[in-house]
Write a structure and sequence with these properties.
Two copies of one chain form a homodimer.
Chain A: E1 13-24, E2 27-35, E3 44-45, E4 48-50, H1 57-69, E5 75-82, E6 93-101, E7 115-122, H2 123-128, H3 137-154, E8 165-167, H4 168-179, H5 185-192, E9 196-202, E10 212-216
Parallel strand pairs in A: 1-6
Antiparallel strand pairs in A: 1-2, 1-4, 2-3, 2-7, 5-6, 8-10, 9-10
The first copy, chain A, binds a DNA duplex through residues 167-169, 184-187, 189-191, 203-212.
DNA sequence: ACAATAGTGTCTGTGAGACAGTATCGA
DNA sequence: TCGATACTGTCTCACAGACACTATTGT
């Protein structure tokens, strides 16, 4: 701990790995990059950055998110820190995983400087198949997926996956995707009713009854 | 991230800070050490160790716990990683906080090599007073206290604060301390009944009705 | 017998789950 | 009018909260 003279210990590299989730076509998707360099060249990996010596972890995460997506001010939280010795075959790198959520309408991404491409991958498909993923990133994704499912139940985290103004059918779909099961409309609405407030807008142009837009009540998060 | 040549980044020191909780005299207590060196000499601090270059985070936490308490095989989990730039006034140290729980009957501790003493401090007293604590450790303690309260409600984490065989009044007390409020006996028992199983033992020697010992059912954690 | 704590029975209210019914749009 | 989706009313059941009652020890 801090009383030690730390110079007797070798220092190590600290990185932040980013899990940027969104919902597209009624599926949970995750932003991944294709690696251009070995190890794991041409394989999918999580985007990430090294933590600068004068940068907090949150700042590094924000910087990484902005580099990959151009987005600022999106929701993110620290997930867990992965510190296996041989995570990276080249050297010791400890990685702090951060999870970010962004509604698909705001989503944006592009290949980074050291990656061939960036794309949204279907999370359930990835986890249930035996697709190889670089480093220990598959495990990290599985961990994040789990956490996301848990937090949906007792927090308002799902609201970060829809725009500020949303319809209840859309929001319900988000809950269903994260929970992996269908919900009853009436019960769902009763449950979230205290968290939201009506707007004056409704959908239009579709061949069925329009739905009202709501927004999150101020008293939350 | 991992595609980078990390040598362009300065490396930093990574530590593990330990929060060893126990319950003594019906109060939540935390193991803290008194610092022998500056900065923060003579102040209370969390025990901790630096993470070795060939050591996982969990291994470092286990090693630290054993150094401070002599205990192995006690419950612990990673809490959160604190990475403010100026946490330590001397140099950049990122710290992964781990929380450990141990029943008071097994508890044991002694001053470390670079500390004056070790002791159990009352967590509520510490947090509600304006006692100074070294580094950002007070914040870490507050965070852990919060997490502990949350996890009591939806996990069996409280079982780690009692011995393998425990009476229900004792267990209830633990819940009450962690939750910060009294519980009804009857309701408490109904709630945890599915998690436990009877033993053949009961308390004796006290001037009132004896209570039965229970143990955790195998199907848990 | 009494003090003290262990342990149980049961009423009530709240909220999740389930399902059926009504409402409102475009075509 | 019809297909399709939005939205609501209500029954049931499980479970948490609250409280009163019974049980068993040592003194």
């Amino acid at each position: 701990m801090e009383g030690y003279d730390s110079s007797q210990y070798e220092k190590l590299s600290l990185a932040v790995d980013l899990l940027v989730f969104t919902i597209e076509d009624d599926r949970l998707k995750l932003l991944m990059v294709e690696r251009s360099e070995d190890p794991f060249a041409k394989m999918s990996a999580l985007p990430g950055v090294f933590v600068g010596i004068k940068e907090t972890l949150d700042e590094a995460a924000e910087r990484g998110i902005e580099e990959e997506t151009g987005l600022k001010d999106i929701y993110f939280e620290q997930l867990y820190t992965f510190g296996e010795v041989d995570r990276d075959p080249r050297m010791r790198i400890v990685s702090v995983a951060y999870m970010a959520l962004v509604p698909i309408e705001k989503m944006n991404y592009h290949a980074g400087e050291r990656t061939l491409s960036a794309r949204l991958v279907d999370v359930e498909d990835l986890l249930s198949s035996d697709t190889k993923v670089a480093f220990d990133h598959k495990r990290i994704i599985a961990y994040a997926r789990q956490r996301l499912a848990n937090k949906v139940e007792y927090t308002g985290i799902a609201f970060h996956l829809v725009e500020e103004e949303f319809t209840l059918p859309k929001l319900q779909k988000v809950y269903e995707i994260l929970l992996g099961k269908p919900l009853y409309k009436a019960n769902f609405r009763k449950k979230i009713a205290p968290l939201i407030e009506e707007t004056d807008f409704i959908t239009s142009g579709e061949a069925h009854r329009p739905s009202r837009f709501y927004r999150l009540k101020k008293t939350e998060e």
